[in-house]
Automatic annotation (TrEMBL):
It comes from Berryella wangjianweii. InterPro entries: Arsenate_reductase-like (IPR006660), Thioredoxin-like_sf (IPR036249). This is ArsC family transcriptional regulator. Belongs to the ArsC family. SUPFAM superfamilies: Thioredoxin-like. It comes from the Bacteria. PROSITE patterns: ARSC. PANTHER family: ARSENATE REDUCTASE, PROTEIN YFFB.
Amino acid sequence: MTIQIFGTPKSFDVKKAQRYFKERRIQVHFIDIRQKPLSKGELTSVMRAVGGAEALIDPDCKDAYALTLVQHTPASMLFDKLLENQQVLRLPIVRNGQRATVGYAPQTWSSWQ
């Protein structure tokens, strides 16, 4: 089992997720979304797994302008706005094949083993 963790290196929840998998000796591939943002296919896969675009948005995002822009975007254009403004995504995004979680979710991750 190989886990992908999308996030930023300084995020506290990303560090906790990395520690969770390291303690269980599960191979992790970390992707810094500031350097390599999610592709269209990856974002679509994560949205499908977590139940839609609204579940991906972090209401406590530090970029208030981008957050307001995304929150007031019509549903038909939301995917494109999320693709352009990935700083509003809730982190970490953890993928295991077709399954994915957003945020720190050790209960879900334990069921993947």
